[in-house]
Amino acid sequence: MSGIATPRNPMVLPLGCALLSLTLVGCGGSGGGSQPQGGNSSSSSSSSSSSSGSSSSSGSSGGSSSGTEPPSQCDMMNAIVGFASMNGGTSGGADGSSVRVSTGTELEQALASRDGTPLTIFIDGVLTPDNSSGDRFDIRDMSDLSLIGVGDSAMLDGIGIRIKDANNIVIRNLTIRRVDIGEKDGISLDGPVSNVWIDHNELYNDLASDKDYYDELVSGKRNVDNITISYNFLHDSWKTSLWGSSDSDNAHRRVTFYANHWLDAESRMPLYRFGEAHVLNNLYQGITSTAINSRMGATIRVEGNVFEDSKNPLVSFYSDELGYWDVADNIFENIEWSSSSSGVIAGPDVESTVDYMPPYDYTALPATETKAHVLEHVGVGKIDECLPEPPAQS
């Protein structure tokens, strides 16, 4: 099931903001516009969006009914927001067996020996190329799997994860950094892949390196569907989050980016080709080139986000076909808008170029609450009490 997208004039680059109040659902397993700008640069030292009254909802409902207990902190952190809640939800290895690993070789053995039943692998330690036998960890031809870091020090240092031909996968509470072997991605999804939840992780590279030394922090190509990227701290990266490997990679991907912190990065947050995406309640700081780049007919709802001290928060650059956006209740603070001959920018007067609502119920935080919420909850070591208990060390 796809959301409803109604493109406006694709050569009109608008900006309207609306405050939504919708309903969060998750699977708790484990107007007028201006013409596009051509070759001029413009900057805004302190530009903030305001509500324009263009709010809409699809299948939404209000707050909890009288007498209903509010959800606990863990209920909220374990509820999946977005596309990964669809198609039966994403539970990973919940209600199955579990194993604890502390080296890359042990993780490889656990993946190779699973028997097809749900499995949760708890990672306790630092996994490196030196204590692994391959150049990445492959989650391939499998389903119903969770990878969960123990405490705040579980790490993949210099080696990443590839998910391919897989379904119902959960990755939570891991630090993944400076992957310089294999495909050089922190986490990559290579379709067909469906129902993946990547939540409360920290991923980063190194801006002191050459731009092409590392690749993406988290990315997807070919047919990937029903993906949620939530509460992750993604920082210090040239290339950050690419969805669609080229202008010919025309699968109809569907991804939600919820409550992530994107800090001190150059571009691709995300770069998104084709399909549908929802960028909801994210915090962007110190972006030096472009943040959200919608290309090749992609439809993205950009809602409740905060952009600070950044350049070009929302664009459609470098493809023969433009992408589209539906904007609502975003805050832009100290933003530089710089247009390109190879595309269009959304600002400084940001308005929607398409009408689109994602096909699930959710609650959008007001943008005025996004920054504090993200900084409080994002990254590793924040949900220890909300995770299943790992087995004892052998």
What this model shows, in words?
The chain is mostly beta strands. The chain has helices at residues 73-77, 104-113, 367-377; strands at residues 4-7, 41-44, 97-101, 119-123, 126-127, 137-149, 155-157, 161-172, 175-177, 187-199, 202-204, 218-221, 224-230, 233-239, 242-243, 254-258, 261-267, 271-273, 276-280, 283-287, 292-295, 299-303, 306-311, 314-317, 324-328, 331-338, 343-345, 354-357.
SSE blueprint and pairings:
Layout: E1 4-7, E2 41-44, H1 73-77, E3 97-101, H2 104-113, E4 119-123, E5 126-127, E6 137-149, E7 155-157, E8 161-172, E9 175-177, E10 187-199, E11 202-204, E12 218-221, E13 224-230, E14 233-239, E15 242-243, E16 254-258, E17 261-267, E18 271-273, E19 276-280, E20 283-287, E21 292-295, E22 299-303, E23 306-311, E24 314-317, E25 324-328, E26 331-338, E27 343-345, E28 354-357, H3 367-377
Parallel strand pairs: 3-4, 4-6, 5-7, 6-8, 7-9, 8-10, 9-11, 10-12, 10-13, 11-14, 13-16, 14-17, 15-18, 16-19, 17-20, 18-21, 19-22, 20-23, 21-24, 22-25, 23-26
Antiparallel strand pairs: 1-28, 2-26, 24-27
